[in-house]
Amino acid sequence: MAILRPPPRGFAGGRSQVPLSEFGKVETVHAVEAKSVDGLFLGKKFDLILCDIEGAEIDALKGMPETLKNAQCLGIEFMPHPLRNVPEAGVEDFLENLWDFQTLYSPRLKRAVHRDGFTALLTLMFENDAHDECLIFHKKRLAITKARA
């Protein structure tokens, strides 16, 4: 079960695990059944999974390790700000279930790396507060060529 609460005034997205004290007076609390992505799609195969969930990417990724094993490509938003606001969360947590992928491309940085460069690229983005609306992870080790100036 998950508990849904009205968002705080001025709330514009981000992690759903906001301290109750930030909500002010809560008029209504609803209990709803929640399922992980694996619980919904176990055993299904995907060419592409797109995730844009406003700062809850780590939670989603933790709920879909088996689904990710059956996906060829993943597009997911990377937002350093929510990672900083989650205790004990960081780049390693974001990458925890993504090690089956071989290539990562950041459209914002126009940069691609193979698996051994995932941590360094995302750490650079994290340290510079560089948001990317759709990092692309691919299961194949794609050829990476330098762009011509």
Tell me, briefly, the overall form: globular
Please list the strands of the largest sheet in the order they lie side by side. 3-4-7-5-6
- What is the succession of H and E elements? EEHEHHEHHEEHE
What is the first-to-last residue Cα distance?
Answer: 53 Å
Q: Taking Cα atoms only, what radius of gyration do you get, to the nearest Å?
A: 17 Å
Could you list the spans in which at least 5 consecutive residues all have pLDDT below 50? 1-5
Multimer state: single chain
> Structural class given helices, strands, pairing?
alpha+beta
Helix content: 10-25%
Mean pLDDT: 84
Strand coverage percent: 15-25%
Query: Could you give a short account of the major beta sheet?
Result: 5 strands, mixed
Tally of separate helices? 6
Annotation, overall tally of beta strands? 7
Provide an overview of this structure:
The chain is of the alpha+beta class. The chain contains six helices and seven strands. The strands form two sheets. The protein has a five-stranded mixed β-sheet. Strands 1-2 form a two-stranded antiparallel sheet. The longest helix has 10 residues.
